């Protein structure tokens, strides 16, 4: 979590879900296409408005693969045994993790915990929608590209 250095009191925070996949090496040089200019990163834009930002690395809560379902929070609850069909999956585990971050924000004097937003793209967008369904304390959500077009 990062808050503006000049903040005079608690600030709203935008929390991004991400970082759940394995690290991948760079694409081969021949296959790499030039990237368009990126502009100002969203984190800097948020700080310039006087808000804070945070990133929840979802893999710190639960791996996003079948092999990881005996580990993470799901493995902890199931005592290392495989999950049952109606037990949590990774998305629900990530939603649980986001709620635990919000629990922490409620204790941090730098954060206005009544004004915490959450955002995610693609699979993390689905997890954001699920988070909002289970935890009404989040003030707002931005869900991008959370479903595959038919």
Textual characterization of the structure:
The protein is of the alpha/beta class. The chain is 27% helix and 20% strand. Strand 3, helix 4 and strand 4 form a beta-alpha-beta unit. Helix 3 packs across helix 4 (123-134). Residues 20-29 have low confidence and may be disordered.
Shape: globular
DSSP helix count? 4
- Major beta sheet summary: 4 strands, parallel
Rg from Cα:
17 Å
Average pLDDT across residues?
86
- Level of helix content? 25-40%
Low-pLDDT segments: 20-29
H/E element order: EHEHHEHE
Strand order of the largest sheet: 2-1-3-4
Q: Structural class per helix/strand content?
A: alpha/beta
What's the total number of strands?
4
Distance between the termini: 37 Å
Question: What is the beta-strand fraction?
Answer: 15-25%
Q: What's the structural blueprint in terms of helices and strands?
A:
Layout: E1 11-18, H1 42-48, E2 52-57, H2 72-77, H3 90-105, E3 111-121, H4 123-134, E4 140-144
Parallel strand pairs: 1-2, 1-3, 3-4
Helix pairs in contact: 3-4
